[in-house]
Amino acid sequence: MSLASRVGLRLEPRVDNPRWMNWAVPVCSFIAALLVGSIVLLITSQNPISVYQRILERGFLDTGSLSGTFISATPLLFTGLCAAVAFKVGFFNIGGEGQFYVGAIFASGIALSLGADAQSWIAVGAMVLAGTVGGALWAFIPGILRAYFRTNEIITSLMLNYVAGIGATYLIFESDSFWRELGGTGAVFPKGKIIPLSAQWPSFDLGNLVVPFGLLLGAVVAIWLHVLQRRTRFGYEMRVVGGAPSTARYAGMRPARVIVAVAMLSGGLAGLGGAADVGNFRHVLDPKGLQQSGFGYAGIVVAALARLNPIAVVFVAIILGGITNAGYALQGPDFPAGLVGTLEGLILFCTLGGEVLVRYRIVNTRRQAVAS
Amino acid sequence: MTTVVDSKAVTAPAVAAFGVSKRFPGVIANDDVHFDVRVGEVHALLGENGAGKTTLSNILTGLYRPDSGHLELSGRRVSFESPRDAIDAGIGMVHQHFRLIPTFTVAENIALGAARDGERVLLNMASVESRIVELGEQFELSVDPRARIWQLSVGEQQRVEILKVLYRDARILIMDEPTAVLTPLEADALSQTLTSLTRQGRSVIFISHKLGEVISIADRITVLRQGRSIETIDAVGATRESLAAVMVGREVERVQRRGVGALPGAPIVLSVNDLGAEGDRGLPALRSVSIDVRGGEIVAVAGVAGNGQRELVEVLAGLRPRTSGRIEVDGETMDRADARHPIRMGVAYVPQDRLGTGLAPDLSIAENLVLKRYRRPPVARPPFLRSSVIDAEAASLMEQFDVRAPSSQTPTRRLSGGNVQKVLLAREMSGRPKVLVVSTPTQGLDIGAVATVHQLLLDAAAEGVGVLLVSEDLDEVLALADRVVVMYEGSVTGIVDAADATVASIGVLMGGGTAEDVA
């Protein structure tokens, strides 16, 4: 046996989780992501400080920039809530993307069929409802498969994203559907019908700041979710089912039903996001635009960074919305288009890495061996 | 590492620990532990849970390195870098939970991992098998090397584990609670094996918290308490009471109640008739089981683990469907396999897996205390839960059942085993049950907590609750029960009055014998 002296790092489970870690870890993960991002920037011969400064200005500080950020944040808020509520009970719904599309399809469908004569509040209310129902139905499929047939919901919900994307594409590009604009330029270039003015969601103008109705609705929903999780019977069931499924069964709960309900709640939130996207911003079913945005996937990043807390999702959505918004504004020869996506990826990566630190502590085991 | 024996080794202990300490964050697992094992000795390490037995055996097998202190083998100082070093030095571990691959043969399991650097890659199974037969004859450990593990009884599997370390030439065998999974008969056979091992110069370190078996099996006993080695005692002349006092650090009163019986004319609160059910693999696990429990009576279900006890309690709790038979609670028939139904009928259930099934570990004590009553008023005011009611009930139950915790908001996963069990019993008793089904309620608890739990069970019976106690600990069964139901392979092999029962008579029934065999 040889004389050896090594430095080893080991993870030991934490006995205790101090409260400050709940916010310290995400904040530090965020900073770590920026640091790693600056290495990437240096490699591409950019000055990280000036890039980050421009993101900060274009995302949050410049006149009107926050209004743009709110627009980018609204869909992220809904898909973030979608992921947060599902992940909390161990239902890994990756299908926020597809549920968002279906919500957009349902919401635009109802807006178009109500027509221009409908009263505005009825049209908006119907879109909210239709979007939610659409997303919930789409999530019902992986929910029921997981709860009663033990199918892996990650796979099924992910696959359904493609189905929903192809479905939306079919409605606009490959059929003469109700959603497609057949007159005018639409006869040549396939595009969706624009929803009537009465169905377009309001935005509230506060001087320099424009707050879309969808964002406010999302914030209210986040607070509602928080109350649901902490104060209600159903929330109690969600927490028991999420943390200890066999205890839930033992206590006479119905874990399968809770899972299906949570799946539909989660999908409904994403679907509502789809409705907000059509109602507040696009005013049309736009399959290409939806699929390029990838709001559903970005929502997973939002939820992870918010540590699955609905209230925190609101703020994280605005921060990530700001980065996205700055990315749109700054894209150009001196600003790499993929940077925003890279940053988002790094943030998720660092957040998940940070989760390890919440659960474990790192121990340095300096090993000194004596020859024998 | 050489195997040359120097002159010192003849008199030096086979293995000795000098001032071994090991700290973990917030705990000192071993604190200045001294002990020595003579050649050819069975040396017991006795201590409660958390006394440091496991940490010490992990240090002896090279899994942990001591923070201070050192080990000596045959008088020579050693330092293990890894478990491999300990194996090379002749230390072998027989784990409580077997590390065997069920679909492999005995010989394949033993050969697994035994090949050393420089040995041929290809296995010569014939030579492995003949070596196993040889070892088996040498140490009275007969087992067919070609049998597959799943075909073997638990006792035989343990022999394979022992052969595994002997095959690697272990001079010192560490056995972690080896009798925990054995019937009394199999335990006797194990004790024969130990004698044969020590006669041939092997040493055994026997880890246990059972006082009786330590006295009968070991030559000397080192008692650990709170990480320290308190005393090494000769087994000859030691008594259970004297050992218990050293182990706990004070005199321990044993709860005793034998055959007090139900109150005269007490009604049958639980009647199980001709019950059948399937196990997890769809094979019959319960065959025509019939048991009656009267109010105020404690009926124990004894048996080696895995003979249908788990399935029985799960059926009673509505967690497993039955394939035949009838269950009546206080005259009312239980019709569905649904956990809500027994709860409503007054069947309380304390499962074996306390934190995994009985409690939601991340939720607070207060939230766990209402786990079975959250659905209805006064706890619920649909759709909301009333936290004021929940907190008030928690305060009074924690006081009544003496649950020690920083606050009612502490997550239950932070509680000690004894307090976890108190939370569970508090919740189950707060539902004013007619029947209390408890599964291995004191497994893994320290002596003080065991006495508390026993007292709570006696209190429940005194209040007129019919208690069905499933336990593998015969001392516990005999101390508490009025009647003992013995199960073997899913059937009831006998129902005896506790007053007439002995460990030996129940042991025969646990091994599948009949009442005639007992007589």
Automatic annotation (TrEMBL), chain A:
Compartments, record wording: Cell membrane
Pfam families found in the cross-reference section: BPD_transp_2
Keywords assigned: Cell membrane, Membrane, Transmembrane, Transmembrane helix
One Gene Ontology molecular-function label: transmembrane transporter activity
Nucleus among keywords: no
GO-annotated cellular components: plasma membrane
Entry annotated with the keyword Membrane: yes
TM region positions: 20-44, 64-87, 99-116, 122-141, 153-173, 209-228, 295-323, 335-358
Bilayer disposition of the protein: Multi-pass membrane protein
Name this polypeptide is given: Unannotated protein
Organism: freshwater metagenome
UniProtKB/TrEMBL annotation, chain B:
Subcellular compartments: Cell membrane
Principal location class: membrane
InterPro entries, sorted: AAA+_ATPase, ABC_carbohydrate_import_ATPase, ABC_transporter-like_ATP-bd, ABC_transporter-like_CS, P-loop_NTPase
CDD domains: ABC_Carb_Monos_I (cd03216), ABC_Carb_Monos_II (cd03215)
Pfam families given in the database record: ABC_tran
Record-level Gene Ontology MF annotations: ATP binding; ATP hydrolysis activity
Keyword Aminoacyl-tRNA synthetase: no
Annotated Gene Ontology cellular component terms: plasma membrane
SMART domains named in the record: AAA
Keyword line: ATP-binding, Cell membrane, Membrane, Nucleotide-binding, Repeat, Translocase, Transport
Bilayer topology term: Peripheral membrane protein
Gene3D superfamilies attached to this UniProt entry: P-loop containing nucleotide triphosphate hydrolases (3.40.50.300)
Residue span(s) of domain ABC transporter: 15-251, 270-514
Signal peptide as annotated in the record: none
Protein name (database record): Unannotated protein
Protein source organism: freshwater metagenome
